[in-house]
């Protein structure tokens, strides 16, 4: 009778790192042989929230992981398959008693997959151990203990990667396993448009931020062009788990002790905490993926305009800063926070479109797509939480304030690059003489504005402010505050 060798498996998801990875650390502590697994699951590949830029980032991250594992004569088993099918095949070769992974705060599709996987593990007498990722706590009913739990998480020393000799499945063992699976091609396009995935690249961004770029963090955080350098730019590496938020926070904490620009570091650390706060909110309010957290806003009905949506997605609205932002996002996968808020505000308020119509396009475009940030922020900027200040951003005011020389606008809307700066901000104010002077025809070279700012802002503001007086909206606002109020904040 052949006795199958026993192994433990670490199922990697959005935690593509070896260091400060609780699932990996706990698997190694057992002393058993360990296999690292990543599966490109069809249910996610086909999900409308993801796009090729995400899968390329993940592939680059896995290649980087395998380079890190070479000195240990190991690598990640990378397959393309439903996760239960993967483990059914592994069980023909190995005895698997424990599977380690992180608790995923993801889309409804991953939640349902995990429920099925839990049943699979139970039926096969496998202990599936889910570990905390980035401080998010599962099963909380309110935030009474959350700050203490979050503080405790951030204060624990980052977990080292220290496998025992020969503890990891060898490259030759894994290559034998690969013969039983569909193996994805890990080659990715050679492009500089997107940030490249992988921990080594994430560390380069992090180190350059702390060494030279952070002093201008608060000065430029709202500037669409300058923020591209003075912000950390590590959000994709946190979203896909190349870096843990704890190790980033701890590095910032130690830097603050000697830094000349302490306020910049403190502001950065505060945003790391808020990242955990919003993901925790999403964990506790899973319906946010499809409906407003405040049920009083479910009665708000907006007619969908495909014409408006297409103009917004492609950067053809007639408002230069909006168009520059959308084209930049489509091309590079990145916008700073204020510009993200601006484009959502314009869509949901000025164009009066449901925030749900923005979800998949923006998730596909954001290289740092994180469900726990994505949906709470969409609803907050759309003004449908009932607890946040209603903000309707003026794209012209913002362009004059944050891109005064129209550098960002002219870069991403090249139709306007030869215009004088004031006209680049508001080309619709051109006179016929100016059109002749610049050889520019409004409506042909660049579109007229698709809506009037002031009247559309007033319509949205009136409707939303009146809704906030509704009894159900008020009751829901109190429920949300009671559930999510953070006492003794950080």
Topology (elements, then pairings):
Blueprint: E1 6-11, H1 22-29, E2 34-39, H2 42-45, H3 52-69, E3 77-79, H4 83-90, E4 95-102, H5 108-123, E5 127-131, H6 146-155, H7 171-178, H8 199-213, H9 217-220, H10 227-230, H11 235-239, H12 245-256, H13 262-284, H14 306-314, H15 320-332, H16 337-350, H17 356-365, H18 371-381, H19 395-402, H20 407-412, H21 421-425, H22 432-437, H23 453-467, H24 471-484
Parallel strand pairs: 1-2, 1-4, 2-3, 4-5
Helix pairs in contact: 12-13, 13-18, 17-18
Organism: Algibacter luteus
Protein name: Deoxyribodipyrimidine photo-lyase family protein (Cryptochrome)
Binding site for FAD: 217, 268
What does this structure look like?
Helices cover 50% and strands 6% of the residues. It has 490 residues and is mainly α. It has three domains: 6-162 and 171-178, Rossmann fold (3-Layer(aba) Sandwich); 199-285, Serine Threonine Protein Phosphatase 5, Tetratricopeptide repeat (Alpha Horseshoe); 289-484, Orthogonal Bundle (DNA Cyclobutane Dipyrimidine Photolyase, subunit A, domain 3), CATH 1.10.579.10. The chain is globular. The N and C termini lie far apart (58 Å). The model has no long low-confidence stretch (mean pLDDT 95).
N to C succession of SSEs: EHEHHEHEHEHHHHHHHHHHHHHHHHHHH
Cα-atom Rg, whole angstroms?
24 Å
Indicate the low-confidence ranges by residue numbers: none
**Looking at this structure, what is the CATH superfamily of the largest domain?**
DNA Cyclobutane Dipyrimidine Photolyase, subunit A, domain 3
The number of distinct β-strands equals: 5
Average pLDDT over all residues: 95
Choose one word for the global shape: globular
What is the correct CATH architecture of the largest domain?
A: Orthogonal Bundle
Keywords: Chromophore, FAD, Flavoprotein, Lyase
Pfam families: DNA_photolyase, FAD_binding_7
Organism: Algibacter luteus
GO molecular function: deoxyribodipyrimidine photo-lyase activity; DNA binding; FAD binding
């Amino acid at each position: 009778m052949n006795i199958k060798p026993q192994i433990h498996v670490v199922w990697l998801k959005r935690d593509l790192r070896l260091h400060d990875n609780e699932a990996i650390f706990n698997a190694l502590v057992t002393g058993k042989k360990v296999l690292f697994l990543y599966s490109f699951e069809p249910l996610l590949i086909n999900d409308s929230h993801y796009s090729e830029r995400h899968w390329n980032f993940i592939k680059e991250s896995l290649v980087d992981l395998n380079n890190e594992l070479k000195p240990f004569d190991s690598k990640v088993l990378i397959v393309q398959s439903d996760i239960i099918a993967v483990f059914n095949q592994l069980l023909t070769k190995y005895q698997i008693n424990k599977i380690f992974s992180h608790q995923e705060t993801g889309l409804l599709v991953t939640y349902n997959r995990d429920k099925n996987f839990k049943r699979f593990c139970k039926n096969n007498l496998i202990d599936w151990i889910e570990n905390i990722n980035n401080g998010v706590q599962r099963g909380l009913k309110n935030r009474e203990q959350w700050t203490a739990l979050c503080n405790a998480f951030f204060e624990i020393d980052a977990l080292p990667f220290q496998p025992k000799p020969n503890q990891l499945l060898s490259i030759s063992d894994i290559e034998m396993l690969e013969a039983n699976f569909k193996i994805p091609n890990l080659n990715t396009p050679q492009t500089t448009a997107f940030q490249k995935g992988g921990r080594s690249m994430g560390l380069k961004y992090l180190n350059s931020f702390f060494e030279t770029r952070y002093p201008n963090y608060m000065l430029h955080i709202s500037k669409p062009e300058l923020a591209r350098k003075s912000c950390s730019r590590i959000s994709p590496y946190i979203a896909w788990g190349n870096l843990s938020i704890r190790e980033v926070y701890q590095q910032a904490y130690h830097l603050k002790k000697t830094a000349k620009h302490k306020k910049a570091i403190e502001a950065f650390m505060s945003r790391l905490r808020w990242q955990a706060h919003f993901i925790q909110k999403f964990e506790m309010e899973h319906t946010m993926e499809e409906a407003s957290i405040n049920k009083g806003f479910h009665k708000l009905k907006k007619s969908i305009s495909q014409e408006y949506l297409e103009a917004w997605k492609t950067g053809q609205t007639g408002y230069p800063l909006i168009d520059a932002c959308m084209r930049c996002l489509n091309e590079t996968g990145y916008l700073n926070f204020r510009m993200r808020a601006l484009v959502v505000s314009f869509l949901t308020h000025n164009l009066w479109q449901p925030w749900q119509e923005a979800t998949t396009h923006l998730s596909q475009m954001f290289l740092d797509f994180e469900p726990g940030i994505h949906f709470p922020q969409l609803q907050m900027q759309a003004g449908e939480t009932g607890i946040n200040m209603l903000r309707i951003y003026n794209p012209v005011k913002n362009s004059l304030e944050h891109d005064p020389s129209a550098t960002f606008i002219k870069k991403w809307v090249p139709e306007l690059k030869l215009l004088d700066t004031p006209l680049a901000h508001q080309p619709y104010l051109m006179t016929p003489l100016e059109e002749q002077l610049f050889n520019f025809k409004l409506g042909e070279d660049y579109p007229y504005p698709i809506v009037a700012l002031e009247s559309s802002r007033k319509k949205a503001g009136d409707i939303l402010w009146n809704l906030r007086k509704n009894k159900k909206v008020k009751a829901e606002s109190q429920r949300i505050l009671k559930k999510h109020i953070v006492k003794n904040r950080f």
